[in-house]
Amino acid sequence: MSSEALAGGRRRAPFKPSQSLIVLGVTLALFVVLSAALPGFVTLGNLFTLARNISILGILALGMAVVVIGRGIDLSQIATLACSSAIAVTLINGGWPPAAAIAFGLVLAILIGVMNGYFVSVIEIPPLFTTLASGLLVLGLTRALVVPHYQVFLQPGHEFLLMLGGTVLGGVPVPLIAFAICALLLHLFLSRTVIGRFIYAHGDNAQAARMSGIATRPLTMIEYALSATIGYVGGIIMVGSTSLMHLQVVESTMIFDVILVVVLGGISLVGGRGNVLSVIAGTLLIGVLLNAMTIMNLDIQTQDIIKGAVLLLAIVLDSYIHPRDEETAKQGD
């Protein structure tokens, strides 16, 4: 046999970049174009603003990624973080120690997540309807019992919370550091722990995971609890950045921005695929895009049109790359 034939037999398959790497490349190209086309885009002040804004969006997307990898979706995430944070701020204003109030809000967020997971896994209500209803329920109860005027302001004297929205090391935003820590911890959890591997198996094929002995019902509750917990971290950082929590954020398009980041970055809606790098890639692209639209002073309707078109394109791309079949179309459809 000739040496060419031997070399051909050992020839490796051509490199096929992942969706997250493609998105990172598109982000780099877009950044270069916007730097040349938009005055003020590459200024230090705008870059720090960009880093601050994408950090909170990225933290929320990390939480959503856990649920989507497990082949679910959490439309209540923004309501959970907003209401839990608003209640925590109300308790702080009422004289509670900040640590105790923040811990109470965290427990509340976890309970909402566990409740979502219970209805999805035990009652077997589709996650789309479960989380939509629970978000409305949580928002309604919070407005009726705690924050009737949509917003609650953090009273002066709580510098620790304000530090969460500040800067360190000569201007590095604290939210960016929080995003990096959350991303690292979630990466280690998904890639190095048994539960993390179970989440991928659950999303890839829920029935096979159940038959192999994985307790999928408690696992689903863990997935939604993690989404709520990580989202709550983002909510507390939002309070530190603005000194208030405005419940109208629940009625904004933020939840669609979070889903857009997740899907665009390469975390498939069919479950079992994607990782933290996918979230980082999607966060960078959407953050750059939103920042550019703000600098161009585009109206809200135009921004919604662009974001809607990008989200639809991302869903179509996900359906093309990861087609559904009888084995994958079990939970979350």
TrEMBL record:
The keyword Cell inner membrane applies. The chain crosses the membrane at residues 21-42, 54-71, 78-96, 102-121, 128-148, 160-190, 224-247, 253-270, 277-298. It is found in: Cell membrane. The keyword Cell inner membrane applies. Its main location: membrane. Signal peptide: none annotated. It is a multi-pass membrane protein. Keywords: Cell inner membrane, Cell membrane, Membrane, Transmembrane, Transmembrane helix, Transport. Pfam families: BPD_transp_2 (PF02653). This is ABC transporter permease.
